[in-house]
Design brief:
It contains 8 helices and no strands. It has helices spanning about 5-20, 40-45, 55-70, 75-90, 95-110, 110-125, 130-140, 145-155. The chain is mainly α.
Length: about 160
């Protein structure tokens, strides 16, 4: 995996986790000293070394935590994450905004709805590629109103 991708992952992790919890937690003034990072973490974060002491403590914590998580991932999972990042980078800004909007919508659903949607998605993923293609094609051929009704029914669990 190239350094840019790893850096992108770490920066994303550094921003995503603290921002998601920022409203619920009081600020933490304790940062992470560069010397306390493992050699593997320092290698992964070496582009931050020069300005590490100037980073806000929360950012240091998030980067340290993100690098620790990254290093704990098995190689296959790292490859999957790398593939997802490359896909994300290939999207234009409007597509990225739409995916963020959908993710926010999903996260606002009750846990049981999220579980149902995940289960349906998993079932869809286990279909043969040709069967998935046919289902997508059938869905696209439906009139817009019918597609909307179907989406609503699926969301209601009918």
């Amino acid at each position: 995996m190239n350094r840019r991708t790893v850096l992108f992952l770490l920066v994303s992790a550094a921003f995503a986790a603290p921002l998601a919890r920022a409203a619920d937690e009081p600020p933490s003034p304790v940062g992470v000293r560069w010397q306390t990072l493992t050699p593997q973490q320092r290698e992964l974060l070496k582009e931050f070394e020069r300005g590490w002491d100037e980073l806000p403590p929360r950012r240091q914590q998030a980067l340290a935590h993100g690098s620790q998580r990254w290093l704990s991932l098995p190689p296959e999972q790292r490859r999957r994450v790398h593939k997802r990042i490359e896909h994300w980078r290939s999207l234009d800004p409007e597509e990225q905004r739409e995916l963020r909007r959908r993710r926010h919508w999903f996260e606002e659903l009750p846990p049981e709805e999220q579980a149902r949607i995940r289960s349906n998605f998993e079932r869809f993923q286990h279909l043969e590629p040709e069967e998935r293609r046919k289902l997508r094609e059938r869905f696209r051929e439906l009139p817009r109103e019918e597609r909307q009704r179907l989406r609503e029914r699926l969301l209601e669990g009918v």
